[in-house]
Amino acid sequence: MRSQLKLNLLKLSYLAAATILVTATTATVATVATVAFDGDPSSSASAQEGPPLRDPPELVSNDGLLRVQLVVERRQVDLAGRKLWALTYNGQYMPPTLRFRPGDRLEMALVNRLGMDTKLHMSTNMHTHGLHVSPSGNSDNVFLDIRPGETFDYVYQFPENEPSGTYWYHPHHDPIDGDQVAGGMSGIIVVDGLKQYLPPDLRNITEHVIALKDFQIEGDAIKTHNVSISAPTNRTVNGQLNPTIRIRPGEVQLWRLANISTNIYYDVQLQGQQLTVIGHDGNPVGTTFAADHLLLAAANRFDVLVRGGPPGTTQLQTLAYNTGPVGNQFPQVNLATVVSEGPPMPPVALPRTVRPFEDLSDATLAAQRTIVFSENATQTVYYVDGKVFDPNRVDIQVKLNTVEEWTILNTSDEEHSFHVHTNHYQLMSINGQPHDYHGWQDTATLPAKGQIVLRTYFINYTGKTVLHCHILKHQDLGMMAVVEIFP
């Protein structure tokens, strides 16, 4: 009861601060749409070529160190030619990509300016999603509270065996994480080294970040509070509406697909072509696989090889997707236009393997647990093991250097996006059917009225961390639990 009361009080305490984000206070629900842009983004009609795809600017480590400053502030940004107020890192809706190598050190000064005007006064913090790094102190500590006007110096020391791949960063300040990500606060992290596992002919190929994030509009601002998952929304690639991606016939490119949105799913398809997966949630796969489409639940990433088709134009799309009877129905949407043109490239064989991973199938288990995700749909309250999140309560204790098997049971009539911090896991089965795993991951789709079984090896780091649903509206309304790793 105290936890529920605390959750309600926290929600009320932030309501006033969040609602003053909207400058035009007369805006109604009807204005939360896409009238400022050509057509309905929920339409799957053919799209004309848009502007060239812009990869985000990069901040790159040098001699083992990446030192950055990220300033959090409410700024006007230009999205498809319209000025909108957004929550930004360094003044950008699509902020810099942080790029470093395994074993590097990241020093990040996070400056909170969300209280520097009269429009907003809000605490924040930082989470480096998917990275295997300490959850304590001034590292990936989601329990920190960085108040308006404060600067906090994060330090991350990454292990030499940090997996090479695509990750992302975003705030993790309960219970307004979803509000801040919806406003624009999310960016990409790349741990270099993935190309070294490719055949020599593919190590210098063109690569693109395909960061998928969406926004809804209220007045002259991006909507941040009471964001409806089912409402019409503007799906962007790197902050652009329908950018154009160019590729030569037969050319192989590396695309870093990343769902860095607040709540929604993407079921990504490149019309008429296959996507060859070489990395999943930042982990190089053991065996590559080709797919006609890839489901990116909230927070999922895939590193894929794309081969240019015959000369012509095709669409990168997200297909229609339904998350369950009380979940959400997402429409088919064109995300980008892909143009194959120019002299054809000679054929190059795609790899069949990337990097071996530690298979936990035969590992000795220190414990087996069942963790239940449930919800009260009428009251919009979400639970882990029948409890709403309380940062002062430890829900699960695990021992360092052990392997545990968890059954995650979903009693609700909608899917959830199951995510664990600090350590990746191996997905063993879905609804009782063995999973054809290709490596480890940090986020998985939890079926409605279903279950998944996973195994995790807790290594290197002790301290308090969390597991939660990465549909951030569900997380902020209670679907998160504290995990303590002890020596």
TrEMBL record:
Q: Which InterPro entries match?
A: Cu-oxidase-like_N (IPR011707), Cu-oxidase_2nd (IPR001117), Cu-oxidase_C (IPR011706), Cu-oxidase_fam (IPR045087), Cu_oxidase_Cu_BS (IPR002355), Cupredoxin (IPR008972)
Q: Where are the bilayer-spanning segments? A: 12-37
Residues of the region (Disordered) are 40-59
Plastocyanin-like domain mapped to chain residues: 74-192, 232-307, 377-484
**SUPFAM superfamilies registered for this protein in UniProt:** Cupredoxins
What keywords would UniProt list here? Membrane, Metal-binding, Oxidoreductase, Transmembrane, Transmembrane helix
Pfam families of this UniProt entry?
Answer: Cu-oxidase (PF00394), Cu-oxidase_2 (PF07731), Cu-oxidase_3 (PF07732)
Name the PANTHER family on file. MULTI-COPPER OXIDASE, MULTICOPPER OXIDASE
Name the record gives this protein: Multicopper oxidase family protein
From which source organism is this entry?
Answer: Pseudonocardia aurantiaca
